[in-house]
Amino acid sequence: VQLQASGGGLVQAGGFLRLSCAASGSTSSRYTMGWFRQVPGKEREFVAAITGSGTTTFYADSVKGRFTISRNYAKTTMFLQMNSLKPEDTAVYFCAADPFKRYYDPREYKYWGQGTLLTVSS
Questions:
Q1: Residues near 90 by Cβ (< 8 Å), separated by ≥ 6?
Q2: What are the pLDDT digits (tens) for 20-53?
Q3: What confidence tens digit (pLDDT) does each residue in 93-104 have?
């Protein structure tokens, strides 16, 4: 499975942005997928996850109510709609797929995309 993240950029606080993660591979549509973020010097942090069916979602408390994770009908692309952005959301965002059990633990994910940088200015 290959993952390609895109959509990062520079946005003002209070603004919005949507990240995308395109997945390729014959079984990619079955996998739980997630978004993580990382700032220099800190561990990679769970942001949100969505099951293969797309019917169940999970969010970190820090983004609940502001971010929405989704995937398209074919389950080949995952999105992260980010609203009411804050400077503390600034990070490199990574998409990942196929966790062993714990969707919130980056160590459990088998596949990773490259990061896309989000910078939120105050």
A1: 39, 118, 119, 120
A2: 999 988 776 789 999 999 999 999 999 999 999 8
A3: 999 999 999 999
Closest CA to 85 of 119, 112, 58, 61: 119
Which distant-in-sequence residues (6+ apart) come within 8 Å of 40 by Cβ? none
Q: What is the 3-state secondary structure (H, E, C) of the chain?
A: CEEEEECCEEEECCCCEEEEEEEECCCHHHCCEEEEEECCCCCCEEEEEECCCCCCEEECCCCCCCEEEEECCCCCEEEEEECCCCHHHCEEEEEEEEECCCCCCHHHEEEECCCEEEEEEC
Distance CA(113)–CA(38), nearest Å, equals 13
Nearest to 71 by CA among 107, 110, 35: 35
Nearest CA to 68 among 111, 27, 17? 17
The pLDDT tens digits for 53-86 are 899 999 999 999 999 999 988 878 999 999 999 9
